[in-house]
Amino acid sequence: MGSKIYVGGLPYSTTEQQLSDLFAVHGAVTSARIITDKFTGQSRGFGFVEMSGDSEAQAAINALNGTQFGGRTLTVNEARPQEPRSGGGGRGMGGGRH
């Protein structure tokens, strides 16, 4: 299992290949993913990179956090586990007439 890294502050034009290349200098990248808006397909300016080893991931975090990429300052840190999402809309159950 590899280490997952959060990368924020990405230029909206960044491709997954560019993101992978940026991290590959510091070790083996197993995946690189840019998060996009589900309606427009536009980048949301952040993504995730998975690296094969913890030491490689830590080296990449130390080297890239706070650096400039495409005119923007990157925020690079260990990704936190995704919080469970509540499903559905804003309608509560219950109510009704008595």
UniProtKB/TrEMBL annotation:
<feature type="compositionally biased region" description="Gly residues">
    <location>
        <begin position="86"/>
        <end position="98"/>
    </location>
</feature>
<dbReference type="Pfam" id="PF00076">
    <property type="entry name" value="RRM_1"/>
</dbReference>
<feature type="region of interest" description="Disordered">
    <location>
        <begin position="74"/>
        <end position="98"/>
    </location>
</feature>
<dbReference type="InterPro" id="IPR000504">
    <property type="entry name" value="RRM_dom"/>
</dbReference>
<dbReference type="InterPro" id="IPR052462">
    <property type="entry name" value="SLIRP/GR-RBP-like"/>
</dbReference>
<keyword id="KW-0694">RNA-binding</keyword>
<feature type="domain" description="RRM">
    <location>
        <begin position="3"/>
        <end position="81"/>
    </location>
</feature>
<dbReference type="InterPro" id="IPR035979">
    <property type="entry name" value="RBD_domain_sf"/>
</dbReference>
<dbReference type="InterPro" id="IPR012677">
    <property type="entry name" value="Nucleotide-bd_a/b_plait_sf"/>
</dbReference>
<dbReference type="InterPro" id="IPR048289">
    <property type="entry name" value="RRM2_NsCP33-like"/>
</dbReference>
<protein>
    <submittedName>
        <fullName>RNA-binding protein RbpA</fullName>
    </submittedName>
</protein>
